[in-house]
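Exam revision sheet. Question 4 asks you to relate a sequence to its structure. Input first:
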Amino acid sequence: MQIPTDLATYTQWSGILTLVFLGLTLLSFVFKWGIRFRLVGATSFMGVITASIFALSLGLFTHTEIPGSVRYTLVYDNAGDKVVIVVPPTITESETAATLRQAAADIIPFGRAGTFGTQLTIRARTMLHPELGVSQPLYLGQATKLMSDSNAELDVRVFSDRFAQLPKSLPESNS
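Answer key, structure tokens:
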């Protein structure tokens, strides 16, 4: 079963349920039911829930999509000034730059530990396997940004000389 992640859908259904409770509350006052004051409380609570979900839908999820970026995996984050992401070994230089920009947009520095003037450093790496049973990390680039200034420019550096070490094609698995 697919659960919708769009908060507008939840706002709509919560609003409908609030109107249903409002109708029941009005009926309870017309027919003088014993639970009419409990229904006032339930209707009020549903109104608060509906307003809260609506407020969350206005700006909770803002995702910036950087064109040309590839999927990456976050493998190290000290919640301060250092982050390492893993990219596939088939990545190009332009994709590395775009992926570092995407990671910087995704990893918001607010609330990170660090002193004034500390730079957030995001490093992109891939894994090489020069021989069976041996893994060697290869750093392909890094992005740095001053954490204390939200408008600071992102400095992206791609280590072009290291792309020559990448395999030209991935080895096929013998399964």
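Marking note for examiners. The mean pLDDT is 88.
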